[in-house]
Amino acid sequence: MRAEELLQTLVRRTGLTEQHVQTLRSLEPIAGPLAPEVALAFYDYLGRDPEMHEILWGVPGRVERLYRSFAVWYREIFAGVYDANYALRRMHIGLVHARVGVRPGHFIPAVGIVQELTLEHLRNALRGSDILAAITAFEKIMSIEIALMQESYFSALWEGLKLTQNEQEALREGARVLLEQAH
Questions:
Q1: Handedness of CA 137, 66, 46, 157 (dihedral sign)
Q2: Which part of the chain is the Globin-sensor domain (predicted)?
Q3: Per-residue pLDDT tens over the stretch 110-150
Q4: Do the beta carbons of residue 11 and residue 91 sit within 8 Å?
Q5: Among candidate residues 133, 123, 129, the one with its CA nearest the CA of residue 18
Q6: Smallest Cα–Cα separation from 156: which of 173, 136, 131, 132?
C-alpha cells in the first residue's frame, strides 16, 4: 500500500477529523516547547536497554543528531499537516530504524514515554472541555504515527525475506533496499 493510501486508511480508521487537526494545531504552542524534555526522556528510556544503548551510543554523535531529529518529529505531530509527504517521512523514519536494528519492540514502548509526558503536560496546561479534545486528538495522531512507522517495518521485513531467512538481517537488508529505492 502506498504511503498516501495508508494514511487515508488510518485517518478513516482512527476517525481523525478536521476538528482534531485544528485542535492539534492549537496545541503546538503548548506542546512544541516540550520537545527537548520529551526527547531526553525518550532516549533515556531507550538507553536503559543494552541493545538500544549500543545502537544509540555506539556511533559518535548519533544521539545528538537524534535529539534534533526527534524535536522536528515531535513538533510535526502538532503541525496539522498530515499529507502524503508526512506519511512518507514517517515511513522513512521506520525504515531508518529498521536499517540500524531498532525494532518495533524497542520503539513502540518508548513512544509510551512520549504519550505519557505529553498527556501529563496537556492535563496541566488546559482546562475544562479543552483537555478531552486535546487528549482525543493527540491519541488519534499517535495511533497514526505508530501505524505508519510499523508498516514500514513490515515492508522492510517483507523485502528482506526475499534476500535472507534470518529475521534481523532481513529487516536491515529490506530497509536498506527500500531506502535505496526511495532515492
A1: positive
A2: 5-157
A3: 999 999 999 999 999 999 999 999 999 999 999 999 999 99
A4: no
A5: 133
A6: 173
Could you list the beta-strand ranges (E) of the chain.
none
Of the chain, the end-to-end C-alpha distance in Å amounts to 18
Burial of 172 (0-12, 13-18, 19+ CB in 10 A): buried
The CA distance from 11 to 34, in Å, is 25
Dist CA 183 CA 166 (whole Å): 26
The answer to whether 104 and 150 are in contact (CB under 8 A) is yes
pTM over 0.85: yes
Helix (DSSP H) and strand (DSSP E) numbers for the chain: 9, 0
CA distance 132 to 135: 5
* Max Cα-Cα span within the chain: 54
Give the side-chain half-sphere CA count within 13 A for 167. Answer: 4
Residue 159 Cα distances to 1, 70, 90, angstroms? 14, 27, 18
Domains of the chain and any CATH numbers: 16-182 (1.10.490.10)
Per residue in 41-94, pLDDT (tens digit) is 999 999 999 999 999 999 999 999 999 999 999 999 999 999 999 999 999 999
